[in-house]
Amino acid sequence: MRLEPRTDTPLALRLLAPVGAVVAALALCALLVAWTGAPVLRAYGLLFEGAVGSRFALTETLTRATPLILTGLAAAVAFRAKLWNIGAEGQLYMGALAAVVVGGGMLDLPAWALIPLVMIAGTAAGGVTLLGPAVLKVRFGVDEVVTTLLLNFVVLLLVSLLLEGALKDPMGMGWPQSAPVVEAAELPKLVARTRLHAGLAIALGLSVLLWLVDTRTIWGYENRAVGANPRAAAFAGMPVTRVMLRTALLSGGLAGLAGAAEVCGLKGYLTLDLSPGFGYSGIVVAMLAQLHPIGVVGAALFIAGIFVGADAMSRAMPVPNYIADVLVATSLLCMLVAGLLARYRLRRG
Amino acid sequence: MSSPVKGRPEVVLRLAGISKRFGPLLANDGISLTLRAGEVLALLGENGAGKTTLMNILFGHYVADEGTIEAFGRPLPPGSPRAALEAGIGMVHQHFTLADNLSVLDNVAVGTESLWRWRSDRGAARRRLLDLSQRFGLEVRPDALVGDLSVGERQRVEILKALYRDARILILDEPTAVLTPQESAGLFETLRRLTADGLAVVFISHKMNEVFAASDTVAVLRAGKLVATHATASTDRAKLAELMVGRSVKPPAPAPLSPGEPVLELAGITVASGHGRPLLDGADLTVRRHQVVGIAGVSGNGQTALAELVSGLIRPDSGKLSLKGSVVEHGDPADMVRRGVARIPEDRHSAGLVGTMAVWENLIAERYHDSAFSRFGVLRRGAAKTYAREVIEEFDVRCPGPDARTQLLSGGNMQKLILGRTLAHGPDLILASQPTRGLDIGAVSYVHSRLLDARAAGAGVLLISEDLDEILALADCVTVAYHGRLTPLLPHDRVSVSQLGLLMAGHWDILRDILPETVDAA
């Protein structure tokens, strides 16, 4: 048996690959579930129900998916240009920081003006955060995997410093949290009496927009060419450095927007546990989606559903909700294998 | 060990009815060949004709679907390189299989000693290596690191490695592809010594002049079939070319045209290299309309810098570059395209095309800002694909359509794609860097005729090639690059191959004989 590269991967196979990966991951993790002594099918049933089985479950999943779509897009956009942005977590916090600063009451504006302003501030903060590593990469060849990853910790410490100091909420009973954003900066709810907010609409809109930009515009065309073969792109006369920096601004901006939307749509203020690793999960989302902007939505919904559903399941059964992390990680590994199998065919002899 | 029947040395290798199928492709179709001791057999064929497949079957990398192999009268078990080595077959691959971090001696001896012995007998290995090296004139330094050797030296090590393992049949896969003309000549000399000692050699090639320089017998493969086997002396180039391609191939015949006004002028161009000798050192050059100027030279004498300069990838440190009479101050690739330069890059895979993108996307890569292909930043995909269909048609690019992924195209079709991208707009200057490297005869003659058509239409062509035959066939004038300097233009009818060879080696004193009038001025 050996692997032979396919000349072309049919669309059906490209769609089937993530489905197969998820099924394989569920099957593998069934062993772990069985190990805890819980009935596997019932556990998965509860997980499914907890993710989409009720109005509450569904809105929770969608709420959880919102930042994942944005960080997933951040990773997808960067990875397509071969800019390995591992720093979405830090960019997200920078975006959140900008949101609480701009939306914290220093501007007295109506909601229609303040909300866009806060979102733009968050986007800009995230984008600028990635611009530094990107400039180092294009000018001096500094490995952005290292710089973006390490910058995450720098940003977290900066946020910690501000939350203990300059930005600390005087009414916060001593907790390390910022003052809440003013009411005019809060994103409207999409469904009454749930936590689902307008951030989802922004995320969905952006994924469609990015897909259109990618396939229909000069920008997307340049991005794809530079990502696939920078030497040929430069030879043809494309502005390779500008494309890289543009991509960095966009990727960091998307992650920053995720942070701003979490603050203004959900939490209202900034704490150090704003993100349970949305920046890192975004990488998984992007990989599951094969870096496709529309696929990112599906992958983010899947991962959000797993986390939300696993919480519900763990309340009813002796299966710890860590199974969600294992499931997501296993899905990623299965996806890498499935991606390989989709690009190759097995041949005997 | 040879049986000296007069005139007919023993048959050392017999292939009978070898067939090999890869999916829908019949790579080898019932091939039978014999090889005698002391014989050099050239296996000639276009890219994809099945030469390398056949040799890989012989050496045990692949298993044939049908057919048998006999070496020295004994059947060779299929699919085992070890069995092939033990039967006395040695192979020198096109891409060398040497460890850069080991010495020559270690590279040669590796794998020949039992791993169970607690110490290796390096003294004996060294004596044997030096003995072989002396006997066949393959000069090497046993203690040099392979990573420090030139390509020609590495090839010698590969050959010694095979001889060290007692190879009596040597297979060389495209051995001259990486060599300079001088190194190739050295290789052919080595082959003569080897065959004088009774070895048999198979060498794979798609270059005609090598076949005549080195082989006794030539076997021509076309589309997996053996179409002819001839004594080399009893055939000629035209006949072999026809056998290879399956139809007659006319050599390019540039019509005499009088050169027009200058399109490219280089004056005192210097490009520093960052260390040591500059890449270009005060180079002067003029290319006129209706004129092909060939740059000859051993690779690494400034040709790459010259190509990058005219492509707009680098800028000169001093000197002046003018196009159509206007000085180019800050050239970049997009600017060069706007000024009417058609650029055919040296490496079409890595610099010319984006393999994962569609054919149409590659075709508009140099002019996607044109209003024909985009408006307000939005691509006009329909218009671009229609345009791509026209270019595909006009330049005979064989592909399923404009949406096909470019990396699926053959080398020849990729080059046609690049020609289509650059020549479809009536360029004033064409920069052709190694435009036919790695292409088969059919594609080569297509590229040549397109370049000559453009010349007739009024373009100036700057042809950079390591293939002297190509330069002499196409160029109106030749200049030789040596250590970053360029000779004055030499009319092609006033300079011979041997003179070019001397100039390429740096003997510029002979310029006085070729061009008495201009040298005095310079």
UniProtKB/TrEMBL annotation, chain A:
Record localization: Cell membrane
Organism ancestry: Bacteria, Pseudomonadati, Pseudomonadota, Alphaproteobacteria, Rhodospirillales
Record organism: Azospirillum endophyticum
Main location: membrane
Protein's name according to its UniProt entry: ABC transporter permease
InterPro entries reported in the protein's UniProt record: ABC_transp_permease
Membrane-related topology note: Multi-pass membrane protein
The UniProt record lists the keyword Transmembrane helix: yes
Highest taxon listed in the record's lineage: Bacteria
Alphabetic keyword roster: Cell membrane, Membrane, Transmembrane, Transmembrane helix
Residues passing through the membrane, by range: 12-35, 114-136, 148-167, 196-213, 248-270, 282-310, 322-342
Automatic annotation (TrEMBL), chain B:
UniProt key word Transmembrane: no
GO MF terms held by the record: ATP binding
Statement: the UniProt record of this protein carries the keyword ATP-binding: yes
Coiled-coil annotated spans: none
PROSITE patterns, A to Z: ABC_TRANSPORTER_1 (PS00211), ABC_TRANSPORTER_2 (PS50893)
Residue ranges of every copy of the ABC transporter domain listed in the record: 13-248, 264-508
Keyword annotations of the record: ATP-binding, Nucleotide-binding, Repeat, Sugar transport, Transport
Short name of any one Pfam family annotated for the protein: ABC_tran
Top-level lineage group: Bacteria
InterPro entries, sorted: AAA+_ATPase (IPR003593), ABC_carbohydrate_import_ATPase (IPR050107), ABC_transporter-like_ATP-bd (IPR003439), ABC_transporter-like_CS (IPR017871), P-loop_NTPase (IPR027417)
Protein name (database record): ABC transporter ATP-binding protein
